[in-house]
Amino acid sequence: MYIANSRVGNDEGIGKKTCNDTSVIDYLLLSSNLFPVVKEFDIMEFDPLVSDVHCQLHVVIQAPVILYNSNDELSQFCSEKYVKWRKEKCSEFLDNVKSDHDCQLEQLLLELDNLEVQQGIHQNEMNKVVERISNFFQSVATKTFGKYKPFKNRKPKSDNKPWFNKQCFDTRKKFHKARKRYSFIKNADNRKHMKNASKSYKIEISKANELYQRNIGNKLRQTKKSDSKKFWNILNSIGSNKKKGADPEISIEALYDYFKDMNRCDSNTEEPEVNFDVHNLSDELYNLLNGTVTEDEILKSVKNLKNDKASGCDKIMNEYIKCTVYDLMPMYVKLFNLVLDTGIVPELWSLGIMIPIFKNKGSKADPANYRGVTLNSCLGKTFSSIINERLNSFSDEVELISESQAGFRKRFFNYR
Predict the structure, then answer these.
(1) How many domains is the chain built from?
(2) 16 shares its domain with 54
(3) Could you tell me if 294 and 349 lie in one domain?
(4) Same-domain pairing of 258 and 386
């Protein structure tokens, strides 16, 4: 920072006095790159109505204003945020889906019908259909839940003392007031009053802390078996209250290189031997793998979807699928069978948003101390679960996996 007095404006080379016409104690401080934008600077004449001994400083700064177009890539990315699902508005969301005032759903079904009879479907055509499905859900969600509104003017909240309530604040205020009075007038009465206020303050914070710890213990006991998600949220909130040291932050490039190397496929890996001819399957086994996706398979897969899970790049949440599974079943059946028959997977289903989560151990500058969690398309995961169920049934039917391999298999147990 530099002193701008005597360097810019009408005061350049002068250094006019600012206090009692004897000294310069009122300054304009600027960084070096701000000097060119100062258009006017002057020391005004002394005015007793404004100050007792100081002169006013007059400064005019003119800087270029950069206007961002709403079509910019960054603005467009930020505008894609959405509000969270609200369970109480499920029926309203479904009503908006059924109304379909813009005929988006009707056009989607017609487009899926055309692709089913079309020969030689291209990747772009499949991508456009899935993008239109995503846009349809987003328009319905915006109509139901409203647009995304970021929090503004949120005051920083300190969680170091979550037990510090209003009673603690009031008693602390009384203690500071008593201590200040004693610092001005030191007598026996003020000293006694200050000691009593200090004692009351210590008792109050001890009582508030004890009550907070008791409530946390009760909440943990109540939610341990009934609501595991709330249980872990309480535990995580307790851990976040601890003061953390100033660890160096890791760069996005280091995380990218680390996870890229971790997920690199080894081309020299040998494929396992198969004990049967995959090209000469019976009709029953062939239909088990490549048969038409049925409504029962979709319902079974959707039933296993969990709530309150983040969506992928297509912004379609599990709640959207679960809420509309019966009303939009024709669309789901046609889409999944189209992907299965053509073998063309939409690009949005292949893209994921990787979130690095710190393991709370080691240095934050080491990428090995981060766990990569990828957010994939919920609609794509629904289709994948159907294929996974078919593969598991097929492997059990042909005894592809040995009975000794019981890990993560249905109707199998590990004995120790």
Answers:
(1) 3
(2) yes
(3) yes
(4) yes
Both 219 and 285 in a single domain?
Answer: no
Model-level pTM? 0.63
**Residue listed under structure tokens 């200090």:** 198
In tens, the pLDDT along 219-231 reads 899 888 888 888 8
- Separation between Cα atoms, residue 403 and residue 395, nearest integer Å: 11
What is the Cα–Cα distance from 164 to 143, expressed in whole angstroms? 41
Q: 253 and 379: one domain? A: yes
Whether 416 maps to a domain, the answer reads: no
- Taking the C-alpha atoms of residue 265 and residue 350, their distance in angstroms, rounded to an integer, is 16
For residue 232, what pLDDT band results from cuts at 50, 70 and 90? confident
| Domain co-membership, 107 together with 253 | yes
For residues 280 and 297, give the distance between their C-alpha atoms in angstroms, rounded to a whole number.
25
- Taken in order 66, 70, 71, 74, is the CA torsion positive or negative? positive
Closest to 4 measured CA to CA, from 50, 44, 39: 39
Q: What is the 3-state secondary structure (H, E, C) of 14-32?
A: CCCCCECCCECCCCCEECH
CA-based max dimension of the chain: 105
Residues 42 and 127 in one domain: no
Listed in sequence order, the residues at least 6 apart from 155 whose beta carbon sits closer than 8 Å to its beta carbon are none
Range of the domain at 25: 2-61
Asked if residue 57 is part of any domain, the answer here is yes
Which of these, 65, 56, 59, 67, lies nearest to 35 by C-alpha position? 59
pLDDT digits (tens, 9 = 90+) for 289-339: 889 999 999 999 999 999 988 899 889 999 999 999 999 999 999 999 999
Q: Which residues 6+ apart lie within 8 Å of 385 measured at CB?
A: 301, 304
Q: How far is CA 45 from the centre of its chain?
A: 55
